[in-house]
Amino acid sequence: MWRNRSPRSWASRVGDAGRYSSLLKLFTAPPISLLLAGSGRPFLALTQEQRERYLLGLANSPVGPFRMGFQGLKRLAGLIYFSAFDKQGHNPNWMWLDYAAPESLAASEPAPIQPLAIMRRYHPGS
Fold first, then answer.
1. How many CB atoms lie within 10 A of CB 87?
2. What is the 3-state secondary structure (H, E, C) of 62-124?
3. N or C: more exposed end of the chain, with fewer CB within 10 A?
4. What are phi and psi of 43, to 5 degrees?
5. Distance spanning both ends of the chain, measured CA to CA
6. How many CA atoms lie within 13 A of 31 on its CB side?
7. How far from chain centre, in Å, is Cα 51?
């Protein structure tokens, strides 16, 4: 379903980019890392256990934008995980979904285009 998008709606979506940028900056902010993971180091410098604690802290935070940011990152990670293809056009993660991929994902030969015949209709009085 198409919705009427006003310029104001478009402008609010442009503002979303700033929110994503702010969310990503959280991962390098020592106070946030100290609060969520117990260490003042950036996210990339944390141990696996600390990273998990950090992400759980975002997911369960009383701060709404933290939770929303975590949900966005989780969805993006899932999309990337299940949509990455190897050279044969298959995703090795599909087996976890019990998905049997088709033998060939790409058509070997494009289907020919069959143009439709144009028929003139008789309109009385024209």
1. 5
2. CCHHHHHHHHHHHHHHHHHHHHCCCCCCCCHHHHHHCCCCCCCCCCCCCCCCCCCCCCCCCCC
3. N
4. -50, -45
5. 38
6. 0
7. 21
Report CA Rg, the chain: 25
* Contact (CB, 8 A) for 20 and 73: no
Query: 82 near 93, Cβ under 8 Å?
Result: yes
Q: What are the boundaries of each domain within the chain? A: 10-87
φ/ψ region of 24 (left if φ > 0, alpha if ψ in -120 to 50, else beta) reads: alpha
Q: Are 42 and 51 in contact (CB under 8 A)?
A: no
